[in-house]
Amino acid sequence: MSNPTQQFSPLARLVHWLMAAMILTMLFIGVGMVATVSEWHTWLLRIHRPLGIAILLLAIARLALRARRPPPPLPADLPALQKLAAHASHWLLYVLMIALPLIGWAMLSAGGYPVMLGTAVHLPPISPASPLAFAILRHLHTWLAMLLFVTFLAHLAAALYHGLIRRDGVLASMLGRPL
Amino acid sequence: MTLTTWTAICGSAWRRLPCAGTLARAGDPIDDAAREWPADRPTVDVGTLVLTGTEPQQSGPCRDINYDPTVLPNGIQASGDPLLPARSAAYADSYLRRTSEEAHFPGSPTAATKPYGRS
Q: Which of A108, A122, B18, B21 is deepest in the core (most CB within 10 A)?
C-alpha cells in the first residue's frame, strides 16, 4: 500500500524512534523520581537532567531535518478535522519536547541549584535565582509533562488507528515498510 | 530567639563550633550513620564555625535556600548513607511547598503571619 516516495527519510525515522524511546523513558523517570525517597531519587535525577538536554538538542535537530525535507503529506481522503488534529498534535509535541527541558533548566536556575549534567558538565543558569519563579516553573514542569504524557498517548492511538483501522500508509511512512 | 538571649542561657562557648573530619579505615561502614566507628580513628580539624548573629526566620537570607545534602562542591561526595537521598527528596518537596506558599500558588497554604518559634 505504501508508496516509497511517501516515506519519512531514514534519518527522520531513526531520530523519531530514538526520541520515542528517550521520551517514554523520561516520562517514567520523572514520575518515578518524585515518588520515591530511596537512592532511586538521586539515581533517576542524575539520568533525568542529561537526558532532558539530549531531548532538547535532538528536537531542535529534528526541526532542522523537517525544514530540509518536509514529512510526507497526510492521505488526501483524511477528514479535515483529523488532519487538523494531526498537525496540531505534532506541533504540540514539538513545543513540549523543547519547552519541557528549557523549563526544567530555568526552574533549577531559579531555585539556585547547580545545573549538573554528570559530575563535570555544569550548565550556566538561564534564569535569575527567584523562589517565586521556581514555584511557578516547577508546577509548570509537572503540568506540561502530564500534557506530554496525554499527547504521547493520543499520538500512539492515532498511529495505531492509521496502521490497523484505516490502513492508509501513515504508520508505514514512519515504520519504513508496509505494516 | 536572638543571639543575646541564647548566650544568656548557654554562655558564650556554644558560638564556636569546632568541625572535625574522621578518617575511615577499610571496612568501616559508610552507609549506616547509626553504627559508630572505633574510637581510635584519626581526626582532622577542618575549621571552626563561629556564630556571629541571628536573623529572623521569615525575613532572613536563609529562608529561600534548599539545604539539599546531595548538592555538594567538587571534591566532596555523599556517602552511601540512605538518609542523604531521602533528605534530598523530602527537602525538594518541602522547598516546592514553601516557594508555592510564597508565590501564593492556588491550593497552597497561606503564609504564617507571625514569626515561627514565638508564642
A: A108
Q: Which of B71, B88, B99 sits opposite A41 (nearest CB)?
A: B88
Is the Cα dihedral A167, A168, A169, A170 positive or negative?
negative
Nearest residue to B82 via CA among B38, B5, B29, B12: B29
Please, what is the average pLDDT of chain A? 93
Task: Name the grid cell of A142.
Answer: 509537572
What percent of chain A stands above pLDDT 70? 97
Measured CA angle at B102 (ends B101, B105), to 5 deg: 50
pTM: 0.85
Tell me the pLDDT tens digit for each residue of A73-120: 999 999 999 999 999 999 999 999 999 999 999 999 999 999 989 888
- Residue pair A152/A56 in contact (Cβ under 8 Å)? The answer is no
| Pairwise CB contact (< 8 Å): B85 & A38 | yes
Nearest to A136 among B64, B70, B103 (CB): B103
Handedness of CA B75, A46, A54, A132 (dihedral sign): negative
pLDDT for position A70? 92
The alpha-carbon radius of gyration of chain B (Å, integer) is: 19
Tell me which amino acid residue A20 is.
Answer: A
CB < 8 Å to B98, chain A: 131
pLDDT digits 0-9 by tens, A149-175: 999 999 999 999 999 999 999 999 999
User: How far is the alpha carbon of B9 from chain A, nearest alpha carbon, in Å?
Assistant: 35
Chain B partners within 8 Å of A132 (Cβ):
99, 102-103
Q: Is the pLDDT of residue A9 over 60?
A: yes
User: How many CB atoms neighbour CB A118 within 10 A?
Assistant: 9
CB proximity A46 to B under 8 Å:
no
Rounded Cα–Cα distance for residues B110 and A153 (Å) = 37
- pLDDT of B113: 57
